[in-house]
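Dear colleague,

Thank you for sharing your sequence with our group. We've completed the structure prediction you requested, and as agreed, I am returning the results in plain text so they can be pasted directly into your records. Please verify that the sequence below matches your submission; if there's any discrepancy, let me know and we will rerun it promptly.
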Amino acid sequence: MASTIANLTVKADGTMDGVFATLKTLVPITVIPNLNRANDRAPDLTVINKRTGFEFGWGWTRIAKSSGKETVSFKLEAKEIGIMYGNLAPAPGGDETKKVILWNDPE
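Please find the predicted structure tokens below.
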């Protein structure tokens, strides 16, 4: 079973605002498009701590080979959490403006 580590609301401009939460951390975040990608391997999205303005995560958009659907995977990194990986998913309830990041436990 996947654990939710962020709850997000998609805004009209394509950015997402929400909260990143673990047992030790509760941080308001915003996810913004990376409009100045240096190359094809650069992240498509940047995760910013709204309290400090610091980047602590990045997201890459890919097309799933099996389904052909767009997926977004995240890498989140900070001293307090180490490195965490997650995927963007629809939030329960069916509201298209609500998303979650589900933790990918590497174990």
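Summary note from our side: Residues 13 and 32 are 9 Å apart (CA to CA).

Kind regards,
the structure core
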